[in-house]
């Protein structure tokens, strides 16, 4: 992946999104994340439009269903020429294997979500009744994803060193919850700066509001790239 910064598109409508993209130089190569909100509004035609403009696409749908349903869904998505797709690692070994089988023949990387960055130890213990420490739960799910064919995981930067240790250095770690030093944390609990994420071993970082809600959006993107490359 030649672009380490993935921009999370969190716009209310397609017009706002295109206006945002038009603020970047035409030759600017961008990696864009389309999440559930925008995908549910605009679907595959929106994905197709962005691919035709030359953007790489991270389709963050976090699929989580019975193995056969996930496999058939991935078979459809395999035709879309997107670069990355997410599932939930907590769906289990059969679901992960089925997702990978569904993507066979495509270049789409399969990424498994370990623990959402909005969840901390309190929620894990009290609400989900998981007895493991957060970092142990994350690494267990990462190893499950690795052994069942996933290409990488979505995780906090803080867990990347442990994930690489139980999987492989080539196992992709894509990190959301990235905030520049000057940015507010918002609803994320396990956060890191771009430079911290790189030092911890993240392969790619996902950044939304610090770029999309900045006054000078292109400059905000450039600053984050520079901070990553320090």
Automatic annotation (TrEMBL):
Residues 4-224 form the Orotidine 5'-phosphate decarboxylase domain. The active site is at 60 (for ompdecase activity), 62 (proton donor), 62 (for ompdecase activity), 65 (for ompdecase activity). The keyword Lyase applies. Keywords: Decarboxylase, Lyase, Pyrimidine biosynthesis. The keyword Lyase applies. It catalyses: orotidine 5'-phosphate + H(+) = UMP + CO2. GO terms for molecular function: orotidine-5'-phosphate decarboxylase activity. Pathway: Pyrimidine metabolism; UMP biosynthesis via de novo pathway; UMP from orotate: step 2/2. Substrate binds at residues 10, 33, 60-69, 117, 179, 188, 208-209. One of its GO terms (cellular component) is cytosol. Belongs to the OMP decarboxylase family. Type 1 subfamily. Catalyzes the decarboxylation of orotidine 5'-monophosphate (OMP) to uridine 5'-monophosphate (UMP). HAMAP family: OMPdecase_type1_B (MF_01200_B). This is Orotidine 5'-phosphate decarboxylase.
């Amino acid at each position: 992946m030649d672009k380490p910064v993935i921009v999370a598109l969190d716009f209310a409508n397609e017009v706002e999104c295109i206006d945002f993209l038009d603020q970047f130089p035409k030759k600017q190569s961008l990696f864009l994340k389309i999440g559930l909100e925008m995908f549910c509004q605009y679907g595959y035609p929106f994905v197709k439009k962005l691919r035709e403009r030359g953007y790489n696409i991270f389709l963050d749908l976090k699929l989580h269903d019975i193995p056969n349903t996930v496999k058939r869904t991935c078979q459809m998505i395999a035709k879309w020429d997107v670069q990355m797709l997410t599932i939930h690692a907590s769906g289990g070994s059969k679901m992960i294997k089925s997702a990978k089988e569904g993507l066979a023949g495509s270049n789409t990387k399969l990424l498994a979500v370990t623990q959402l960055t909005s969840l901390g130890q309190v929620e894990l213990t009290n609400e989900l009744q998981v007895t493991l420490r957060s970092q142990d739960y994350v690494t267990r799910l990462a190893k499950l994803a690795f052994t069942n064919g996933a290409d990488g995981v979505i995780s906090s930067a803080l867990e990347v060193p442990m994930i690489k240790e139980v999987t492989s250095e080539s196992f992709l770690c894509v990190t959301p919850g990235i905030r520049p030093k000057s940015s507010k944390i918002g609803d994320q609990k396990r956060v890191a700066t771009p430079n911290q994420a790189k030092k911890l071993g993240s392969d790619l970082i996902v950044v939304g509001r610090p770029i999309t809600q900045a006054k000078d959006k292109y400059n905000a993107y450039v600053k984050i790239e520079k901070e990553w490359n320090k």
